[in-house]
Amino acid sequence: MPTPPSSASSTRLFVGNLHPSVSDYDLVQLFQPYGHLTKLDVVFHRSGPLRGKPKGFAFVEFSKREDSLRAKVELDGKPFKAGRTLSVNFANQVDEATGGGTGKAVRRRHDDDELRPTTLSLVKNARQVKGGADAKIAAMEAKLAALRQKKAGGGGEAEESSPKSSSSSALKRAPASAGLPVKPPPSSSSSTPPR
Fold first, then answer.
1. Model pTM?
2. Is the dihedral of CA 74, 78, 82, 87 positive or negative?
3. With 60 as the cut, is the pLDDT of residue 167 above it?
4. Backbone Cα Rg of the chain
């Protein structure tokens, strides 16, 4: 018979490979014959498309170490709902295998994650211009001025052009070095398609 860990968490069992249809009631009915249950934690997804659905594992805590050991020995590897084989271990053994601490430390980590900003939100906030709509407009105007200056050749101040003068300059052909090939002039025999 395996010896349980000597820590206080030796009354807490990890129960894995649970079918999504397994309920709290099912787990209580399964573990209650082995002793007095003090706590039952079924773990659910906290975010994403599976939010609110069970993750497929739970934690069961007994009042006595002997009860938890007996439940572990008798239920580990037994088939349960939908033909799934239960995986029952002491909670601290499972967490050590995954590189974590006790089950409570894992739970605290999840609580901290809710308060910590995500990488995506940090990137979005870094790109945002502070100061409201006026600051955003000023940033856009500065960017347009930089683009005009670059288009003018990068030397000196870019000339302020009105919408009327910019439309006439837009009709000019871009030089061949602009990155796109120059469109050939229309030929006199444009009625026959090329083959």
1. 0.46
2. positive
3. no
4. 34
